[in-house]
Design brief:
Number of domains: 2
Shape: elongated
Order of helices and strands: HHH
Oligomer: single chain
Mean pLDDT: 82
Length: about 80
């Protein structure tokens, strides 16, 4: 592409402004949709149940890891290694 073709291919200031505003509008709608979906999901009883069950599983997992470490320590005192 030569310089003349390049200059002719450039967008006008008005076209650049329209594109910038369009991108801004799309971004705003995207943010609004994501925010709306997260609110709708957080109010859903099934989602609330899943979040509660997930938290309970995390707590149980940590507790089990701690108990396994305690048991390993006790067994190592008897020279039993797992």
């Amino acid at each position: 592409m030569n310089q003349t073709q390049y200059n002719n291919a450039q967008l006008s200031t008005e076209e650049q402004h329209i594109i910038a505003k369009s991108v801004e509008t799309i971004d705003n709608w995207n943010n609004l949709c994501q925010y709306g979906v997260s609110i709708a999901m957080s109010n859903d009883t099934d989602i609330q149940y899943i979040q509660g069950a997930s938290n309970q599983l995390k707590t149980t997992s940590v507790s089990m890891r701690n108990n396994v470490n305690i048991l390993k320590t006790k067994l190592s005192n008897y020279n039993i290694h797992c």
